[in-house]
Amino acid sequence: MGKYIGRRLLQLIPIVFGVTFISFLLMHLAVTDTVDVLYEQQSGANAAAAAAKRAALGLDQGFFTQYCHWLWQVLHGDMGQSFVTSLPVSTTMLSKLPATLELMLLALFLTLLISLPLGTLAAIRKGSIWDQLARLLSFTGNALPDFLFALILLYFFAVKWHFFSFLTPTADRSPLLPALPLAFAMTAKYLRQIRALLLDELSKEYVQALLCRGLPYHYVLTHYVFRAVAAPLLALLALSAASLLGGSAIVETIFLWDGVGKLAVDAIMLRDYPIIQAYMIWMSALYVLFNLAADIICAYVDPRLTLRKKED
Amino acid sequence: MASHKRKKITLLLGLILLGLIASCLAEYILHYSPYEQHLSLALQGPSFQHWLGTDVYGRDLLARTLAGAKLTIITALAVALLSALIGSCIGLFCGYRQGKAVTCLLRLADIFLSFPTMVFAIAVAGILGGGTFNAAAAITAVTWPKYTRLVRNLVSPLRREYYIEAAQMSGFTTGQILFQQILPEVIGPVFITAALDLGTIITEIAGLSFLGLGAAPPAAEWGSMMSSSRLYMQTAPWTVFVPGAAIVITVALFQLLADSLRDFFDTKLVR
């Protein structure tokens, strides 16, 4: 078990290098020179001052030297300063992260609340009204983009029924409304997967054997089938979380929710590159960690996974 | 049964094609330019002259929405095609060969897979600047690894098949084996996956333009139309919801098409 976790952590190393390298490369492609951007607001600088600043920032060195230096700083939690506010990027990100996490956790909770019971009902009562409902929900969820759903909610709750004013951000606003579009998009993906997974498991011979022995259906379901599908269900949930992380940028912008996603979109408008770069790295790290956590819990729930890895 | 499915596919394809043709001919059918501004006609509700109303610059919404179909559908098709092509070629190679190069390519695919799609697209389009091309490139960059995975997993078990060994022994080149013997086996699932992806790609492109990272405002693009009309939602909700409905209808059509195609070819290999 410990070995399995250790190996999964080792596999992360090339991914961390890759993600950071790509984001560094992007910055390099976009801003040929950070100094030019820094001096842009002060209507340019003379060549000598720019060269001095360049040397001070280490920008006169080779690409790989710069990358290594930058990576070393990132690994120490230093992601540079915002071009606009001059505050350290990490502090800014950390101050916005709780709001985004609150939104995501609520969306995750809502997703599970809807998709687990409905997916199970759709699988055990195949063709019933529940199954139809699950299909309808996952079809509309896939066809309705999250930003459109967010705008529809906004239209009814803010414009028609005046529950709140969407033009003024308030700190104590409920996260329920912005969480709904995120949860809806994720539910659409997850429902389909739960249904398919359960149908596949229910058609296996051991289920028939258990039922033949006279065990009640609900007992077989809760004690055998659910235990068997717990691991893949969790892994799929972690994969669907990608739609949460990406969707949050759009939904936060629409609802003026003061989180990481809105920070990134605002940063794009202001061409505040260090923030965008940090956003990319943090969100990917979060996604990778989600999946790592899911894998580790899976290994606890389903010992077959660790054994299979050993055979390889 | 098969003929019923075939009819359904033909119908859906016909509808999409009709939309595309209408989109190309919109200006001539409607007598309204999607770009010409008539400020005196701004924000009018649906009427007999303007079936779906006008936007803040007095442009006919029906004309603009129809014109937007062309851009969205063609970009989405290009993105799906390109990612399927790149991903499958790398996947073919990785499934058939072994060694350091293959490990490196698979690790590269892993790295791109560890970016949440929209996060990567937002960052790329944000750093490199907006525009339809950059948005499409960003989405392609995160979509191709899926095909590499799929094709590699399909090709790996084929490597030890007798007919492949026979082809090897009778002196076929690697290229011939890959494209003549192996490709026909995997093209079906790749095609279906690409069809299923089209809907997602359309929403992603619209989402990026909504954030201002895709087509720029004067262009008739659904996402950017919605974004620029957002402020008038209170007085003229149709300016937001007409392009929104266009997105939903298009995505739904493509999704139905992909589902019927999957049923028709009955590929079990694709989830």
From TrEMBL, chain A:
<dbReference type="InterPro" id="IPR000515">
    <property type="entry name" value="MetI-like"/>
</dbReference>
<keyword id="KW-0472">Membrane</keyword>
<keyword id="KW-0812">Transmembrane</keyword>
<feature type="transmembrane region" description="Helical">
    <location>
        <begin position="136"/>
        <end position="158"/>
    </location>
</feature>
<keyword id="KW-1133">Transmembrane helix</keyword>
<protein>
    <submittedName>
        <fullName>ABC transporter permease</fullName>
    </submittedName>
</protein>
<dbReference type="InterPro" id="IPR045621">
    <property type="entry name" value="BPD_transp_1_N"/>
</dbReference>
<dbReference type="InterPro" id="IPR035906">
    <property type="entry name" value="MetI-like_sf"/>
</dbReference>
<keyword id="KW-0813">Transport</keyword>
<feature type="transmembrane region" description="Helical">
    <location>
        <begin position="103"/>
        <end position="124"/>
    </location>
</feature>
<feature type="domain" description="ABC transmembrane type-1">
    <location>
        <begin position="97"/>
        <end position="294"/>
    </location>
</feature>
<feature type="transmembrane region" description="Helical">
    <location>
        <begin position="233"/>
        <end position="257"/>
    </location>
</feature>
<feature type="transmembrane region" description="Helical">
    <location>
        <begin position="277"/>
        <end position="301"/>
    </location>
</feature>
<keyword id="KW-1003">Cell membrane</keyword>
<feature type="transmembrane region" description="Helical">
    <location>
        <begin position="12"/>
        <end position="31"/>
    </location>
</feature>
<dbReference type="Pfam" id="PF19300">
    <property type="entry name" value="BPD_transp_1_N"/>
</dbReference>
<comment type="similarity">
    <text>Belongs to the binding-protein-dependent transport system permease family.</text>
</comment>
<dbReference type="Pfam" id="PF00528">
    <property type="entry name" value="BPD_transp_1"/>
</dbReference>
UniProtKB/TrEMBL annotation, chain B:
<keyword id="KW-0813">Transport</keyword>
<comment type="similarity">
    <text>Belongs to the binding-protein-dependent transport system permease family.</text>
</comment>
<dbReference type="Pfam" id="PF00528">
    <property type="entry name" value="BPD_transp_1"/>
</dbReference>
<keyword id="KW-1133">Transmembrane helix</keyword>
<feature type="transmembrane region" description="Helical">
    <location>
        <begin position="191"/>
        <end position="216"/>
    </location>
</feature>
<feature type="transmembrane region" description="Helical">
    <location>
        <begin position="71"/>
        <end position="96"/>
    </location>
</feature>
<dbReference type="InterPro" id="IPR000515">
    <property type="entry name" value="MetI-like"/>
</dbReference>
<feature type="transmembrane region" description="Helical">
    <location>
        <begin position="236"/>
        <end position="258"/>
    </location>
</feature>
<keyword id="KW-0812">Transmembrane</keyword>
<feature type="domain" description="ABC transmembrane type-1">
    <location>
        <begin position="69"/>
        <end position="258"/>
    </location>
</feature>
<dbReference type="InterPro" id="IPR050366">
    <property type="entry name" value="BP-dependent_transpt_permease"/>
</dbReference>
<dbReference type="InterPro" id="IPR035906">
    <property type="entry name" value="MetI-like_sf"/>
</dbReference>
<keyword id="KW-1003">Cell membrane</keyword>
<protein>
    <submittedName>
        <fullName>ABC transporter permease</fullName>
    </submittedName>
</protein>
<keyword id="KW-0472">Membrane</keyword>
